[in-house]
Design goal:
The complex is a heterodimer. By secondary structure, chain A is mainly alpha-helical. Chain A has 14 helices and no strands. The longest helix of chain A is centred in the first third of the chain and has 34 residues. Classes of the chains: A mainly alpha, B mainly alpha.
């Protein structure tokens, strides 16, 4: 079979991706850049500047940044420990982190309500131990917790993958040449895992920035993130033009993130799979 | 020694964090009281009620059917696409891979609304079909991204050798190429199935009235209060998967073929 014939094999997918990936994105841009009469307008995009929308965007940015940093700080040491544990089955580690996904995402997040409530499980334990109780349900803190909980696996897996690919000889060489633990980490391990870190940041930051479910379930109904605003424009207000315009703003952050990833991870090494 | 203990405690705490909500749900499925807030004693009645609840069973059927069909179609289309992508020139390959990456990198909410706008303009009736089309769309990239690395490791000469020895292209593919890429195909399928099963956001925007998956059913129940049958069902699903995984891991695993 020659290579032209092989290329033809891709036709179903190429057509599929054109119809279901490229065209829909173009439609978001079309709706976002037009008004109800179909005339060109920037108003939908510029409406991000209104106090209500910009507040939702800033809050979403703030909470997702905090969550991303917490995920990174929790995941890196964890990945290092897991890597050194010599679990010879790489797939087992992956499974442990993917397994929770088989329990529905909404139920898992809802379970935090039960855990965090004023008279919930965690507070009962704290009261029993005579410790001060934790009242974070329906606050931004609970949203951050929900984000960290849901997206932590997406930070651990790419970092773990990057770490497990490091050649032990490289580290041994650094030690032989007189580097101490800290120097080995800063000069060898950390730079080699940058693609994994960047990939992890993307996998956590984007879903956290755009979520509307976590803020709905754990933040009560009063806290609106940009994702909630977009969702409401589509499902309740039925203002697709405004919703699309705000989605374009969201996509700017996604593109920015993709550009940063491309700069740091040229070979696509930091994959989750 | 102290350092090692500290490490173990750290890993343990993270796993408590990851699995605490799951434990909570399992406990709630045996809770005789209908509210989440208090413990009313041990019961199995929700498990019995579950099998009489047609709404939930229908949602379960939809969820499983969509996940299975979507991941199967995605696996076939994605694997075949990989063969083609490998043979593209560098430039077109970059373009195709860039497009493939879009559903992975783009926010689910944007993917969801973009597909919703597409289906509306195509005049499709929202329901099982539109959910399925969307799920296939976001499943294919998972398959491609997990098959691609395997394809790259292949030695192209083996396939050519098979052809030289008289094998037809299809026979040659299944006898020579397929066994080598199988681990990638399987992990792609599994990943796609899991993602489809766990998806809420994209389904939320592409479903029609009257058709529910478990996720959308749970979401509509949030405000009224989740039916305890739902906890029972998710406990059954979770335990089944856990047992399956333990069995698979017990089986002599090929250590080279990691996911």
């Amino acid at each position: 079979m020659n290579s032209t014939k092989k290329k033809l094999l891709g036709t179903p997918y190429f057509i599929w991706s054109a119809i279901f990936i490229v065209v829909p994105l173009c439609m978001v841009f079309y709706y976002g850049l037009t008004d109800k009469s179909g005339a060109f307008t920037m108003e939908n995009i510029l409406s991000i500047a209104t106090p209500e929308h910009s507040k939702a965007l800033w809050l979403a940015l703030l909470l997702s940044l905090i969550s991303t940093v917490i995920c990174l700080l929790l995941a890196y040491p964890l990945a290092m420990i897991l890597c050194k544990m010599n679990v010879n089955q790489h797939s087992f580690i992956v499974l442990i982190f993917i397994l929770p996904m088989w329990m529905n995402f909404l139920l898992r997040t809802l379970a935090w309500q039960t855990l965090l409530e004023k008279t919930g499980v965690i507070n009962s334990i704290l009261t029993f131990l005579h410790l001060p109780t934790l009242n974070i349900i329906n606050t931004p803190y609970a949203i951050v917790l929900g984000m960290v909980y849901n997206f932590l696996p997406f930070m651990v897996l790419p970092i773990y993958n990057a770490l497990s690919k490091i050649d032990v000889n490289v580290i041994n060489a650094a030690r032989d040449l007189g580097a101490n633990e800290l120097q080995v980490f800063l000069k060898v391990t950390l730079p080699l895992t940058v693609p994994g870190i960047i990939s992890g940041i993307t996998m956590v930051f984007i879903p956290a920035l755009t979520t509307f479910v976590i803020s709905n379930l754990l933040g009560g109904s009063k806290i609106l993130l940009i994702g909630n605003v977009v969702e409401q424009e589509f499902t309740q207000a039925s203002n697709w033009h405004l919703g699309s315009g705000l989605s374009i703003v969201l996509m700017l952050f996604i593109i920015l993130n993709m550009v940063i990833s491309a700069v740091f991870d040229k070979d696509g090494e930091g994959s989750v799979l | 020694m102290i350092k090692n203990t500290a490490k173990k405690i750290y890993v343990f705490l993270i796993f408590v964090f990851l699995y605490a909500p799951i434990a909570t749900l399992i406990v709630l499925s045996f809770n005789a009281s209908k509210t989440r807030a208090k413990w009313g004693g041990f019961t199995l009645k929700w498990y019995i009620a579950l099998f009489k609840n047609d709404d939930i069973l229908q949602a379960l059927f939809n969820t499983l059917a969509i996940a299975l069909i979507a991941s199967l179609v995605a696996t076939v289309v994605g694997t075949i696409a990989c063969i083609a992508i490998m043979n593209l020139k560098k430039r077109s390959r970059t373009v195709v891979m860039g497009i493939t990456n879009i559903p992975m990198l783009n926010a689910d909410i944007v993917t969801g609304i973009s597909l919703m706008l597409l289906f509306i303009s195509m005049g499709l009736r929202f329901g099982f079909g539109t959910i399925l089309l969307s799920h296939i769309t976001f499943c294919i990239p998972y398959v491609i991204l997990s098959v691609m690395p395997r394809m790259k490791q292949l030695n192209p000469s083996t396939f050519e050798a098979a052809l030289d020895l008289g094998a037809g292209p299809i026979y040659g593919f299944f006898k020579v190429v397929f066994p080598d890429i199988l681990p990638g195909v399987l992990s792609g399928f599994l990943m796609a199935f899991t993602m489809s099963l766990d998806d809420f956001i994209i389904t939320h925007f592409t479903k029609g009235a009257g058709v529910d998956t478990l996720s959308t059913k749970i979401y509509t129940e949030v405000k009224k209060g989740i039916k305890p049958e739902m906890y029972a069902l998710s406990t059954i699903i979770f335990v089944t998967v856990l047992i399956l995984l333990l069995l698979v891991n017990k089986a002599p695993a090929d250590k080279k073929q990691e996911a």
